[in-house]
């Protein structure tokens, strides 16, 4: 597990450079109180305090320089407000000017300095890190935990499929279980055929080294409320016999992004000691092509007993999740949340920044949306519109696995809902798990979308709020 705690430290009066934050509303007043040389320098640099606008202000000597950084709202610092600064500044220690506390912005400060370096050395080799001092250390461990969980999602999604196959997901879950005293159960290969037939069908064409598996982690006291967290772990998606194009296959290492979210959320729950009975499930497969691959036209019998006609082998994630949702519902949880990189239709609907959220419970959906808005991890609710259920009908099976040309994200969510136990409050995140263009603190590549929203919702519901 990574450690980002050294990047943000409690302020106990250490020597540090000044990092002044200014928003547009307060710029005139701030300039009026600044020394003339600072005002003149900022005027020459045409500083307007727009978000992420950074100017280094020289001091009387070479070692006395300070920084001025524009933010959107100095009274409400969001996670990415400070993230541009550590991407630009030289190594050193920095303290915010005035009576300003960074709050959630420490998350972006830390993440701006994290990169996966397994395959490529960093572009620079700084002599040290950019350390931010904070005057509100009480919440610091919680925020660093969120930054580390986000970084873990990014690293798992960015790792190539050869090094992040079903076995690697199992190893990650095993390490997590050891660290927090959880119990791990894994059903692998042909042992899935009777209990989890859809997971088995999707993954059976992969090489033996990438055999499919259901990974289950149990943690917490039996008398605590049950929380089920489920992740789609398609470690590479060729599309199966309905093969993807080369362009469509290029990013399919990220198709296990739902599993990465589930593992990271489980870590946050256990690390905080949340008073819940956690049941985490990951269906880990590779959707490969071989002589025993499942075929268009096949009819699969699911764990729940529902028969599914395969209209498209590239609609495989919902099959994997269906067996997972059925298993998690057998001992009904108090709440169930799943994460999946499920449909391109969700990206068309809400773009790459927002995970599409579906839920069968208005209070659950409202809580997740509100939590996401509060912590800068927004999501957008789409409807489980029952009028579209006839889009995935089958002539010979209970349902089909593909929903036609329209409302693909909704029909996929409706398919999943068939496998949710009656009366179980359930939320489904159709998340991209990827950032196509870089932003401060958010480099191009794997991304956690919906993770912090879910964590803060669960923490507010079962543990200490805030």
UniProtKB/TrEMBL annotation:
All copies of the Cytosol aminopeptidase domain together span 312-319
List the Pfam families hit by this protein, alphabetically: Peptidase_M17 (PF00883), Peptidase_M17_N_1 (PF21337)
Q: Does the keyword Manganese apply?
A: yes
Keyword vocabulary terms for this entry: Aminopeptidase, Hydrolase, Manganese, Protease
InterPro entries reported in the protein's UniProt record: Leucine_aapep/pepB (IPR011356), Macro_dom-like (IPR043472), Peptidase_M17_C (IPR000819), Peptidase_M17_N_1 (IPR048816)
Task: List the Gene Ontology MF annotations in alphabetical order.
Answer: aminopeptidase activity
Tell me the first and last residues of the signal peptide.
none
- Superkingdom of origin organism: Bacteria
Q: Which SUPFAM superfamilies match?
A: Zn-dependent exopeptidases
Manganese recorded as keyword: yes
Q: What family does this belong to?
A: Belongs to the peptidase M17 family.
- Name of the protein described by the UniProt record: Aminopeptidase
């Amino acid at each position: 597990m990574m450690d980002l705690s050294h990047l943000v430290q409690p302020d106990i009066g250490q020597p540090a450079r000044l990092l002044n934050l200014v928003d547009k509303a307060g710029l005139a007043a701030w300039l009026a109180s600044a020394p003339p040389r600072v005002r003149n320098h900022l005027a020459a640099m045409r500083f307007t305090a727009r978000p992420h606008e950074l100017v280094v202000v020289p001091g009387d000597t070479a070692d006395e320089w300070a920084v001025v950084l524009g933010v959107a709202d100095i009274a409400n610092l969001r996670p990415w407000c400070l993230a541009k600064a550590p991407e630009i500044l030289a190594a050193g220690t920095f303290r915010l000017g005035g009576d300003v506390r960074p709050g959630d912005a420490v998350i972006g400060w830390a993440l701006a300095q994290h990169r996966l370096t397994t395959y490529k050395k960093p572009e620079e080799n700084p002599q040290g890190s950019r350390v931010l001092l904070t005057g509100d250390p009480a919440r610091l461990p919680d925020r660093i935990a969120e930054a580390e969980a986000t970084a873990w999602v990014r690293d798992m999604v960015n790792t190539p499929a050869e090094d992040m196959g079903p076995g690697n997901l199992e190893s990650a879950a095993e390490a997590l279980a050891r660290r927090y005293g959880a119990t791990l159960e894994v059903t692998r290969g042909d042992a899935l055929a009777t209990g989890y037939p859809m997971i088995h069908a999707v993954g059976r064409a992969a090489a033996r080294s990438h055999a499919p598996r259901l990974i289950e982690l149990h943690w917490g006291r039996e008398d605590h409320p049950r929380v089920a967290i489920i992740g789609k772990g398609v470690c590479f998606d060729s599309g199966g016999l309905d093969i993807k194009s080369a362009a469509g296959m290029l990013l399919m290492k990220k198709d296990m992004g739902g599993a990465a979210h589930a593992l990271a959320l489980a870590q946050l729950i256990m690390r905080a000691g949340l008073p819940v009975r956690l049941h985490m499930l990951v269906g880990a497969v590779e959707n490969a092509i071989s002589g025993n691959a499942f075929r268009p036209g096949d009819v699969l019998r699911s764990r729940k007993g529902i028969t599914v006609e395969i209209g498209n082998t590239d609609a495989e994630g919902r099959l994997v999740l269906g067996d997972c949702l059925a298993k998690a519902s057998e001992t009904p949880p108090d709440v169930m949340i799943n994460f999946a990189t499920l449909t391109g239709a969700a990206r068309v609907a809400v773009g790459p920044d927002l995970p599409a959220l579906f839920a069968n419970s208005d209070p659950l959906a409202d809580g997740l949306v509100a939590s996401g808005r509060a912590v800068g991890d927004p999501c957008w609710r789409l409807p489980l519109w029952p009028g579209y259920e006839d889009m995935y009908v089958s002539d010979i099976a209970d349902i089909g696995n593909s929903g036609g040309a329209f409302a693909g994200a909704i029909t996929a969510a409706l398919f999943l809902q068939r496998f949710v136990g009656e009366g179980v409050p359930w939320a489904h995140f159709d998340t991209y798990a990827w950032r196509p263009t870089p932003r401060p603190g958010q480099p191009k590549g794997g991304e956690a979308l919906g993770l912090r929203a879910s964590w803060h919702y669960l923490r507010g519901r079962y543990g200490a709020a805030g």
